[in-house]
Request: fold
Amino acid sequence: MDEKKAVAVKVSDISLSFGGVRALSDVSFDVHEGEILAIIGPNGAGKTSMLNCINGFYHADRKGSIVYKDRELIGMKTYDIAKLSVARVFQGIQTYGGMTTLDNLMTGMHLTLDYGVLASFFYFWSKAKKQEMEKRRKIEDIIDFLEIKHIRKAYVGELAYGLRKRVDFGRALAMEPDLLLLDEPMAGMNLEEKEDMARFILDVSEEKQTTMVLVEHDMGVVMDIADHIVVLDFGKKIADGTPEQISKDPVVIAAYLGEEGN
Amino acid sequence: MYKKPCGVFDETYEQDSALVRTGYRWLMLVLLLACLFGVLPLFAGNYFMDAMINIAIMVIAALGLQIIIGFTGQVSLGHAAFMAVGAYTSAMLSTHLGMSFWIAMPLAALFAGLLGILIAMPALRIRGFYVAVTTLAAHYIIMWLILHGGNLTKGVSGMTAGEIRIGSFAFDNELKFYYLAMLFAATAVFLTSNMMRTKIGRAMIAVRDNDLAAEFMGINVFKTKVTAFFLSSLYAGVAGSLLAHYQGIITVDQFTLMDSIWMLAMLIIGGATITGAIMGVVFLKILQQVVLFGAPMIGHVFPIFAGSAVAAFMQIFFGAVIILFLIFEPRGLFHRWQITLSTFRLWPFPY
Reply:
């Protein structure tokens, strides 16, 4: 791990419980600027919960803290956190089925468009049109990059799964994120689609230096693209380090494969 | 997927997001407007004009309902009540204070809109079904207030509203009012179309399709819903105000729960787009006229069905139409229209 990089997100002592179930207990880790951090762990380990805490969708216990851009994220509203350029790629399909691919991506630009209802009524004579056209240029770049030109005007609800995931990714990119949270972006994809997605993630990471937190089950992908791995098991952090360190860590091997002799 | 005619390419982003894309469509639009504003009034009698005015007013109201139901995905059953608020506010301002329509109408619309926000605030913290029930309650509260408003609303006897005039020119017959109502309806359609291709419209659809994802993308879901409710009630207020000044007198039984449900039916039949809302209104209103003329004929041929049986037949017939649409055309007339268009554009090479 490159120690010279500044800390982008400082997660310390995060605990979260639903009723009696403790989803996370005292999880701490640092996400450094520009790195791809992967959170791995068995099912139900609290990986998605961790992302939801960063997004402000779940409210972690107040004794912990998540500091990002000098702001305490715990207690902030989800859409206010989005204003800090935190984007999210969802598990499963969470695109807007009734909109075209283009509109889905444009929705990602929602926060950067600064006009109100009245301006939207008078499209041609207001700043709405000018802003929309400016953003449209950026959206087209993303569409080119993700190779989804052919489905630009297709309703997302009618698209195949792999393409919808790509639209979801594009929508997150449209937010021009500084921090990108990816929740199983490759789940349910075939090898070729996975390779494409991994390539997109690496390209974004290289070109824009976007800090990313990735939750993924495919160990091959994680080992290949992650700079830094955090392993969760039953809501506790059991390991933290580079892919090489993690792959040799006996605790991790035990958590994944079961301990010998038990 | 929307398919453009062969050989039509967009060269700028402006072209791509234009409402009217091709020269042919411009021609059709101009022809349609010319027909509505120029040709139709020349030939049509007062009865037909009256029907057209009703359609125009209902288009405005239905567009309002479309914003909240079709675009934002919150079911409202109180739309007729918001129309009543607009109608009565406008009528009261005109009768009691002697205000001109041009001041009373915006005030009435704004008041309906603000009342919409007031009712939306508690309703929209929860989702779906509960919103419908809250608006249902709102309907009965508003109706009770109007009925028991004493001298202010004139209760059951109905409220009068003054003529609409510009200077000395009064919109005092069907033909003159027709132009006014059509102009309002066309403006409403245009403004709504504009809104739906900007971030406000996209935020609404995002909330409808996936409010969770919308919140993660920085869309304030609650604010979006409240805005939608405000606009929806605002449209209803404009429609109600127009209705009041057109008829000159309004009563509470013009704004029943059934009317809200009819508007819902119009949207189901039309589909969840702006064109869909217009199609739904026109279709149901035409059907109404058909039944109005057809029912007595049935009564004439089969005397046993005459009288009350004919009135009952109307209800059954409309019910059947809605059920058939839900079964065979759940995405509405607009969807069928799109499929027809695409088929023609791809023919004879359907790939």
About this structure: Chain A touches chain B through 46 residues (CB under 8 Å).
